[in-house]
User: What shape does this take?
Amino acid sequence: MKAIIKTNKGDMTFELNPTAAPKTVENFSTHAKNGYYNGLIFHRVIKDFMIQGGDPTGTGMGGESIWGKSFEDEFSLDARNYYGALSMANAGPNTNGSQFFIVQAKEVPASMLAQMEDLKDNGFPQEVIDTYREKGGTPWLDFHHTVFGMIIDGTDVLEDIASTKTGMNDKPVFDVVIDTIEIIE
Assistant: This one.
């Protein structure tokens, strides 16, 4: 299952992961099919971290799930916040609604990689450490935010959006608009 996020800066295509996050994929894809995200903005952009959207108020304070209430986190050892991950934004455990973010951090801080290496003996997989070292990402968000997809095309658009000039509260000065999100099953 794929999602194409079509923006006024270009398209980004994601491979969705319903095996790791079935409820999250259902929520996101149903919202997309119903046009919920059409015309919304990326209201929070922090270069070398992430871009966030999915809030109908454009403030970071709004949005709801297709069920009209928050739903639980879905964590998987196979779904990490690597560069290009599509993850749910939240206000704490089990508070998922409609907001999502795309990880744009191309590098993991060296101190964090060293901490991860230290945890290797406690069962932290070397493969995960290597992938973070190679691809970048935000490992500190693992098991705090549900990862439900991964970018497979359009990293140039992700980089363009991340480079957008921002003002107060990391909000782009000129709106970066989600025109539509197309779901391909």
In short: The beta strands are 2-7, 10-16, 42-46, 50-53, 85-88, 100-103, 147-153, 178-184. Residues 18 and 151 are 15 Å apart (CA to CA). The chain has one domain: 2-184.
